[in-house]
Design brief:
The chain has six helices and three strands; from the N terminus they run αααααβββα. The protein is mainly alpha-helical. It has a domain of 105 residues. A three-stranded antiparallel sheet has the order 1-2-3. Strand 2 and strand 3 form a beta hairpin. Helix 1 runs antiparallel to helix 2 and helix 2 crosses helix 4. The longest helix is centred in the N-terminal third of the chain and has 21 residues. The radius of gyration is 16 Å and the shape is globular.
């Protein structure tokens, strides 16, 4: 149990923090600050999960780093969260090579009540392979992944 995060003590508490971060982000999907809060929480759930459920995970994942590598294979969007979280925390990334080439706030002509068929404001992510993805799609995938993973692996109620 974590003693340095006020009333957020467990992995499930931290997952609920992610859901709260996401609710705030959903009210303003053009906010880089709110998106980065989501990314940091989503990525750091790997650390919380590994440490809280270590006794159940250590036989398959002997280290946190190994667990993180494997979990990104289950949810590739977590790699994007990893890059965003560490790219925000550190000015330069030196420990791993990100798959993200660039990020930008695309200021659209229309508000987000329109579909992407219109020129709406988006948080764009350009991957090193040239693929363009949208933050909102990636964070949606991560939230779905974490809910399923935590429920199916540890039988927790969320």
């Amino acid at each position: 149990m974590n003693s340095l995060s006020f009333d957020i003590k467990t992995t499930i508490d931290f997952y609920r923090k992610l859901l709260e971060d996401y609710r705030e982000y959903s009210l303003d999907e053009s906010s880089s600050r709110l998106a980065l809060n989501c990314a940091m929480t989503a990525w750091h759930l790997t650390d919380w999960t590994y440490n809280e459920y270590n006794s159940q995970l250590v036989s398959h994942f002997p280290t946190l780093s190994f667990f993180q590598q494997k979990i990104k294979l289950l949810c590739p969007s977590l790699q994007i969260m990893h890059d965003l979280a560490n790219g925000t925390k550190h000015y330069h990334l030196t420990r791993h090579t990100p798959i993200i080439d660039d990020t930008k706030l695309h200021q659209g002509t229309f508000d987000n009540s329109f579909s992407r068929a219109f020129d709406i404001t988006t948080l764009d992510i350009k991957l090193k392979d040239g693929t363009k993805v949208y933050f909102e799609d990636e964070i949606d995938a991560v939230i779905i992944f974490w809910r399923h993973y935590l429920q199916s692996t540890f039988n927790v109620v969320i």
